Amino acid sequence: MAVPASSAFQRLARTITVPATGATLSFWVERDTEPAFDFLLVEARVPGTDAWTTLPDVHGHTTQDTGFACPAWLALHPFLEHYQSATPDGCSPSGTTGQWWAASGAGSGPEQWEVDLAPYAGGQVEVSLSYVTDESVEAPGVVVDDVVVSTGQGSTSFEDDGDAWDGWVAAAAPDGSPPDAPRWFLGTVDDVAPAVGANVRAVLARQPEITAFLSELFGRYPFRASGAIVDDAELGFALETQTRSVYPSSIFEDPTFGAVIVVHELAHQWVGDKLTLARWQDIWLNEGFASYTEWLWLEHEGLLTAQEGFDLRASIPADSGFWDLPIGDPGPDGLFDGAVYERGAMTLHALRLQVGDDAFFAILRDWASQRPGHVTTPDFVALAERVSGQDLDAFFELWLHSGVKPDGLPDDPWGPPAGEAATRVSDGRHAERSPDIAPAGVPGPAHEVPRR
């Protein structure tokens, strides 16, 4: 089994002699990995050569989706240039020596994989079951078992029978991996899949810390009680019920993601519960604000700066449907569209760049600290203009009502920020993840748990 770790590349390898008639390699997989950032792949090469490629699973568990491993995005690991390359349009699943086939995210349960070794018929092939991760986020990882080569050269349950590895080795990681990177190890599913209940307790124990963090932004917590309701029912969403937010237990499978959703719902105690909308068209005042606190929390945790979160979304092409919806009045069918969340947060960050940090955080605090009541977008615009001393009508018209990508946004998510006022804050680490943006620039929660 293999577990997530920073920039890790874990290989379980074996050399197989393939008869002239060909052969197949099959094995069972249980996986729960971070979508678009962590990948399970089957690598192959003729022993002693650098002619690496990846092999597809004939049952369709692998795809050519490069997610954020692509050199045009995060460039997850330098070795992956063997299988993928940057193009003017994004990324190609073809690299210097081979093709890209991989699986990411969680499986539906035990999966049987099977790969065809016919391209190596009549010779030898070195096969590696490889798990590539960008950063440890306490996702369970990958377990493989019952590996079978159709020629009878090997089958194994990795049991403690005196030959537990059965010809496989935990091979060294390729160049570019950290020196202390973990390797595949023997164990059981329980060794890498902590009980969700333990994650729930650990994340919810941070509620006082999260509330204190939000109080620094918004002022004193507006109610006398704070808690949570967690249900095993697959609700499909989390909900900011006043003083007792409701969460599906599945969001806590990844504690980092679970904490981000808790931040979002607790932020709604100020923006959504204390301050309620006078009209539904202003839904961005709830969801954009709560989503921006996610970015600020990730920066607080040292995972992703708010500027990097903004730049990542700003790189979405102008012809994407992400930019079409006028989030200042999305209509009944668009109230909970992913763009309301993501572009609402972008609007706040763009405002921060426009007016500067001092004025921006004063605006946030003044807005959320006002007496409970109904609010509108014109109310917020008036407050922002009063605090900043700037005329912001054109700014908000562009960001909330135009339905087009604002000019000047970067095409390269890690290139220079847009505008002279944009000053990147970085702790020297690459931007790792945003739990609320889908792979390949598609708006919406990557984990399919909408927030309300």
Structure described in brief:
The chain has 452 residues and is α+β, with helices and mostly antiparallel strands. The chain is 25% helix and 18% strand.
Which terms would index this structure?
single chain, 452 residues, alpha+beta, four-stranded antiparallel beta sheet
Describe the structure.
Helix content is 25%, strand content 18%. The strands form 5 sheets. It has a 5-stranded antiparallel sheet, with no helix packed on it. A 4-stranded antiparallel sheet has the order 7-2-9-10, with no helix packed on it. A two-stranded antiparallel ribbon has the order 5-6. Residues 412-450 have low confidence and may be disordered. The two termini are 36 Å apart. A hairpin with a 2-residue loop joins β5 (85-87) and β6 (90-92). The protein is built from 9 helices and 15 strands. By secondary structure, it is an alpha+beta fold.
